[in-house]
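Q: Two folds, back to back.
A: First:
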Amino acid sequence: MHDGFVGFGLANNRQGLEMFYSEEKVLTFFTDNHLRLCNFLQGQGLPFCSDLVLPADFGHDHLSLLGLPQHQLPESLARLQRDDLDSVNFCQQLIDLLDMYPVEEGLSFFLTRKEQDQIARMLGGQSRFGEIGEVEFGTLLLNWSDFVTECEEGFEGDLDEYRLGLKVRDLVQFVVDSAPEELAERICRIIEEPDATFRRILIDRRKRIDSPDAADVQQEPFWYQGVVRQQGVVLRRDLIRSGWFAR
């Protein structure tokens, strides 16, 4: 399964699975049991096929599904529209189908099944986090990193959406405070870089955006101290209406 798209990775920490596509290998496994991943793919309707074409068979040039004439494609692919053969589209479909998320260069980590089970038990019955408490924890770590990146470049959402990003960090901190020391340290290392970036882009830190969950953490949450520098029009409007700049 590939289109010569180098560096596309998928992970599902909850399943203990991680796989990558590269220019020389159709699938590269980083898991304790290769058969588990093959069985997982089979269960998703993606059977094993021994007749695989590697990009190396065509020289160093990368093979692209869009780069092949339609008559050279397998019958199952030849009847698809060009948009369906675009890696931008079908990679996202794979992510949804396999309940995974992209592995990005900016934030790379892997939590074991045991650690995921520990985290699930910690969050069990914690209704105050609402729907985000039901999201896979690895995805939440990526969401926090993405939120920080968006804030650094210019947050275009409203105040409620901004607070939702902060609530994701509340949940992460709850897990850090509740987890065994070794797991807590691992999570802190994972979020160290986005945390440092968020601290750097906060201004007006003498003021605080309060949160109903702030009392649940063991230390003063830095992410509520001030607001990000690059405020979009909608966020700035909501801050004005809330009296933020009048304090």
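A: Second:
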Amino acid sequence: MIEKIKLIAKRLFNFLKRYIYQILYIIMLCALWIYIILNWEKCVSMQFFSQFDGNNILFLVGIILMILPFYEVEGDGIKIRRANVKALERDLEKQESEFQKNAMQITINTMQSQGMKCQTEVTENNELSE
């Protein structure tokens, strides 16, 4: 029972560790849009200079955050979308190495079994020729 709980906790931790930025992004986007919808009149008024309260900027930031996931953004050498790509590349390399390892093991096993057959055939041929 404790082993199952540890396994579930480990999987949950790995999931959160891998997708923490996406989860936080979605939470932030939802919270921002809930605020914008509740204060729609203030946020859409677009009166930057006569009455500046920042709500209209929040509306623009909300629109930008909705469009942002469709583009790869780079700032100060940090590529936002590259984190997912690199994680997928690591997983692919791991799976590929496991596949190659398994393929090599199968090849070795096949060669060994054929070698055994060849050795028995050679010994049988030697016995017949004698």
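Q: And?
A: The chain has two domains: 1-71, 77-130.
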